[in-house]
Design brief:
This protein is of the alpha+beta class. About 40% of the residues lie in helices and about 25% in strands. It has 2 domains: about 170 residues, GAF domain (Beta-Lactamase), CATH 3.30.450; about 100 residues, 2-Layer Sandwich (Beta-Lactamase). The strands form 2 sheets. The chain has a 6-stranded antiparallel sheet, sandwiched between helices. A hairpin with a 5-residue loop joins strand 7 and strand 8.
């Protein structure tokens, strides 16, 4: 890392906070709050990238409840522009179209948020958050309304904090994925008499029982089929009722049963807190 632009005491305090939690909600709220104080900004938001929906999402506290907010990634918006181009934006007045056009002719500020809330956005600093590998970004950090605008020192400070946030967010998301996998496993038993596999939203196998090896005619091991598309591993299912029902369950979010020639297949959706299907549990039983 390059030279740090935060005084030593504050830096180690924020470093301890950022790296001491694996709770993504705490990073999106408490950690962001501490950074807001360091920047002396009025509001700050850490948006994460959902590449499946091409959206930025975050969680904010409203009346002591965490509320998820989502915005589409579009180059025309401030946050979307930074997420798309991976560039830092530092503007004095979001309402100054000339200042925005000076950055990019497509750039604009969506005033509807201010109109609904009665808030007046002026200075804005948006900084991409790199994933720890440095090959892509995992989100963007947006700070609003520092008196007098954000300085070059603020930009340098956020570049350093963005690096640390990238590490913390990546670790927290990996931990969250592991915990979700554990919850899934609570619903299933790895029984040799039944074939069980878990699919993600792209129909890729994320986990499977030993019986799935037998179903493949021992052509595949659990390790080799993990990460592969179900229909690549089992091409005989292509165009079958099973493929049709998998697609239905993914969209509709309720359990279905399919009768194949020698197998019964239960398709069970795993839903998130908003009722959206995130994974499917497939249970294959000999008839």
């Amino acid at each position: 890392m390059e030279q740090l632009y935060i005084e030593t005491g504050k830096f180690f305090n924020i470093l301890s906070t950022i790296l001491s939690t694996l709770d993504i909600n705490e990073i999106l709220t408490n950690v962001v709050g501490e950074i807001r104080c360091i920047l002396n900004a009025d509001r700050c938001t850490l948006y994460l990238i959902d590449r499946e929906t091409n959206e930025l999402y975050s969680k904010v506290l409203q009346a002591e409840n965490l509320v998820e907010i989502r915005v589409p990634i579009m180059k025309s918006s401030l946050a979307g522009y930074s997420a798309t181009t991976e560039k830092i934006i530092n503007i004095r007045d979001a309402y100054d179209d000339g200042e925005l056009q000076g950055i990019d002719g497509e750039l604009s500020f969506n005033k509807s948020w201010d109109q609904k809330s009665g808030y007046r956005t002026e200075s804005v600093l948006v900084v991409p958050i790199p994933i720890k590998s440095g090959k892509e970004i995992i989100g963007i950090f947006q700070a609003l309304n520092k008196p007098g605008g954000f300085s070059d020192l603020d930009v340098n400070t956020m570049e350093q904090l963005a690096y640390l946030l990238g590490i913390a967010v990546n670790n927290a998301l990996l931990y969250q994925a592991i915990e979700e996998e554990k919850k899934l496993r609570e619903y299933i038993i790895d029984d040799i008499e039944e074939g069980i596999c878990i699919l993600d939203t792209k129909r890729r196998i994320t986990s499977a029982s030993k019986f799935m090896e037998v179903m493949s005619g021992m052509r595949h091991t659990i390790e080799s089929m993990t990460g592969e598309n179900l229909f690549d591993v089992f091409p005989s299912f292509l165009g079958s009722e099973l493929e049709e029902k998998i697609n239905d369950v993914m969209v509709k979010g309720y359990k279905m049963i399919v009768q194949l020639s020698v197998l019964e297949v239960k398709i069970i959706p795993y839903l998130d807190e908003k009722g959206k299907t995130r994974k499917l549990i497939l249970i294959f039983t000999r008839i």
